[in-house]
Amino acid sequence: MILKDDLPFYARLAFVLIGVLALGFLIILGKELLDPLMFGFLFAILLLPISNFLERKLKLPRSMAGFVSILLMILFISGIVYLVGTQISNLAHDWPLLKEQINKSAVDIQLWVQRTFHVNVEKQMVYVNDTTDKLVASGTTVVGSTFGALSSLVLFYLFITIFTFLILFYRRLLFRFILYVFREEATPIVHKVVENIQLILRKYILGLLIEMLVVAVITCVAFWIIGVKYAMLLGIITALFNIIPYVGIFSALLLSTLITFATGAVSKAVIVAIVVVAIHAIDANVVLPMVVGSKVRLNALITFIGIVLGEMLWGLSGMFLSIPVIAICKIIFDHIEGLRPWGYLLGGDYEYNRVAQEEMKTE
């Protein structure tokens, strides 16, 4: 019989690659189930202290405590949606003014294209009209697809709520199941891994919420000082998009610049773009390290690769879930002897230096 240590490196590498490919295939295949389940898991970890408080201090049954915890979360999210919705309604009231500004900007762009590329306005309008006719012709399909997407989104949120409640209700059963899976001598390690996952993910999510609030306040104040018309709306949008690492800042930059361009001068749109980039730099180098801290020690390369893979596998939700999933993997790898090199790869040199310093202190 060939032992694992007797296998050559290329054979072990082949087994790892086959396992990764098989796992990726199963993740893609099970997206409809795993996607809301992962969000439910994260929300359950976030709401666990509230549920425990309601059970121990207020003596509520576990089912009622979970229900009240989820209700508080829904009220919080509904407040954010209501705030954004009121700002969007104000934007809709000014639609005639926006339309006039967009038409004026379109004329300026047509004149610039004519001067730069020597394409007269008539040819430009022919191209625009052809494109418009194609869009109108496919309007029914677009409306049907939009309705289907909205229906799927509502069902997705419903599944997240159900999974969150069930995980909160059956959390002790799930934990005992994990203990039963491993041998009795591994019980302390399992306890430590589960506690670290709960602690790190909870602090990470709370840190992101605090960071989002700080970025929203800074952005709203900066836009108000500049004189941007929809300062609060753009500030909230920038903060919401900012929680998507690396990619969200570009979306917020594009949206803020376009809305400002449609409601003001080009110079003000340029100033808004500069302000968004500056706020992102302050957030990445000051706010994020102070608020979120070093709870999720992942190097930038692995983080970016995880975000790209998450988008390839599950789209936008995969981008949100990539960092928590990688953080969970790192915690597990760090506590298993044979997987510690992978945990080191996810963390980086600073993690190695920290562990080395701790070992020197113990010696």
From the structure above, extract its key features.
363 residues; mainly alpha; disordered C terminus
Task: Tell me what you see in this structure.
The protein has 15 helices and no strands. It is mostly helical. It has a domain at 296-363. Helix 3 (62-93) packs antiparallel against helix 6 (139-169), helix 8 packs antiparallel against helix 9 (231-242) and helix 8 (187-226) packs antiparallel against helix 13. The chain has helices spanning 9-29, 31-56, 62-93, 95-117, 121-137, 139-169, 171-181, 187-226, 231-242, 248-263, 266-291, 300-314, 316-334, 340-347, 349-362.
Mean pLDDT: 78
Cα-atom radius of gyration: 25 Å
Q: Kindly report how far apart the N and C termini lie.
A: 40 Å
Question: What is the number of beta strands?
Answer: 0
